[in-house]
Amino acid sequence: MSIMDQNGGSVIAMVGKDCVAIASDLRLGNQALGVSSNFQKIFPVTDRIYLGLPGLATDVTTLKERFRFRVNMYTIKEEREIEPETFAHLVSSTLYEHRFGPYFCEPVMAGLSKTPSGGYKPFIAATDLIGCLNFAKDFVVAGTASEKLFGVAEGLWEPDLEPEDLFETISQTLMNAVDRDAYSGWGCVVHVLTKDKVITRTLKGRMD
Amino acid sequence: MAVQFTDGVVVGADSRTTMGSYIANRVTDKLTHVHDRVYCCRSGSAADTQAVADIVHQHLQLYSQVSGAPPPVHTAASIFQKLCYENKDALSAGIIVAGWDKEVGPSVYNIPLGGGLFRQPWAIGGSGSTYVYGYCDATYKEGCGRDETVNFVKNTLALAMSRDGSSGGVIRMCVITEEGVERLFVPGNELPQFWQGSEVLPNPKGKAVPEPQVVPMVVE
């Protein structure tokens, strides 16, 4: 059993038309024993960037605090909010600092980046546990149910989904993938980001 | 698990088969017929338990042809025990044998990993069983009827399926009596519900702690 399977959990992010969605399950386990059905894995970094952290729970908590510190320092020095692509590189370099003793997390990011014309472009990215960046155009997945998430997302995703349709697609992808994984599930949460608001919904799913 | 009651036994199981963390089958039938009034619950390696159950099934078919009568549950359990004990180094099989016969009535036999044979009024097994020993000890009563026993099995399985990652899916039960075998099915969305743990305890002053708001980090 790998260290990444100790606590369980999965995260997915998807791109839509002028919107992004990021979703995760809520399980925290001790190998097969489920311990909490309320364990948050997705954290807001700024108004327009959300970070999902599946993997070993202690590293989820530690990394969230490390990134909070580093983003605050960025904001103080730069006197502006960090952009999603810059934040992704910040995540990558933070993880690579521990190349030979890594954090057991595979971060997933979703956000809306400013364009020169003043609009917002959807952005998603993911890294592996040592910081290799993946800028996908459609969806990114991580966690114990990642292979199942790949399968369902590949089948259900299509480009240019409106926020309400993107919510349905990402929800079905996550719910059906975690139902095939023994270490993910126990409830799900979905955040849909558009240029002026974030809608967060908690889904009712199988609790086994 | 299997539980004896006045007129028969109730055997029950969840329906999840896992390969590591992947759920290979979410609608498995772990209650296996080895004779008309003798069923077994299989836990451990699926291949090992299926192979052993098939061999016992063959033995019992021969037994009933040769003797002209259905086999006693003790006989079926002893054949299981012989296979599990003599091949203990190679097998990973936890089996519960339960059924009804004319001489003894209902009986439940537990055959855990080493291949010992234990007759018990109720028996639980599998990875999820560890979480429900306390519930079973506290709830089991002798002299129950069919419906109370079915409820006991259903509640126990639901609790184990909720906590154990390697258990889940649907509940399958068989009620075995002199008259016959009745198969029962409880789908996943009709499982008994217990405390799910998302409520927050109120603080000692009696006021409920408010739900934490998800707000962006403070940015100047």
Automatic annotation (TrEMBL), chain A:
GO terms for biological process: proteasome-mediated ubiquitin-dependent protein catabolic process. It is found in: Cytoplasm; Nucleus. Keywords: Cytoplasm, Nucleus, Proteasome. The keyword Cytoplasm applies. InterPro entries: Ntn_hydrolases_N, Proteasome_beta_3, Proteasome_bsu_CS, Proteasome_sua/b, Proteasome_suB-type. The keyword tRNA-binding does not apply. Its main location: cytoplasm. Component of the proteasome, a multicatalytic proteinase complex which is characterized by its ability to cleave peptides with Arg, Phe, Tyr, Leu, and Glu adjacent to the leaving group at neutral or slightly basic pH. The proteasome has an ATP-dependent proteolytic activity. Belongs to the peptidase T1B family. This is Proteasome subunit beta. It comes from Roridomyces roridus. The lineage of its organism: Eukaryota, Fungi, Dikarya, Basidiomycota, Agaricomycotina.
TrEMBL record, chain B:
It holds the Pfam family Proteasome. Keywords: Cytoplasm, Hydrolase, Nucleus, Protease, Proteasome, Threonine protease, Zymogen. One of its GO terms (biological process) is proteolysis involved in protein catabolic process. It comes from the Eukaryota. Its main location: cytoplasm. InterPro entries: Ntn_hydrolases_N (IPR029055), Pept_T1A_subB (IPR000243), Proteasome_bsu_CS (IPR016050), Proteasome_sua/b (IPR001353), Proteasome_suB-type (IPR023333). It catalyses: Cleavage of peptide bonds with very broad specificity. Coiled coil: none annotated. The keyword Magnesium does not apply. GO terms for cellular component: cytoplasm; nucleus; proteasome core complex, beta-subunit complex. The keyword Oxidoreductase does not apply. PROSITE patterns: PROTEASOME_BETA_1, PROTEASOME_BETA_2. One of its GO terms (molecular function) is threonine-type endopeptidase activity. It is found in: Cytoplasm; Nucleus. Belongs to the peptidase T1B family. Component of the proteasome complex. Component of the proteasome, a multicatalytic proteinase complex which is characterized by its ability to cleave peptides with Arg, Phe, Tyr, Leu, and Glu adjacent to the leaving group at neutral or slightly basic pH. The proteasome has an ATP-dependent proteolytic activity. This is Proteasome subunit beta. It comes from Roridomyces roridus.
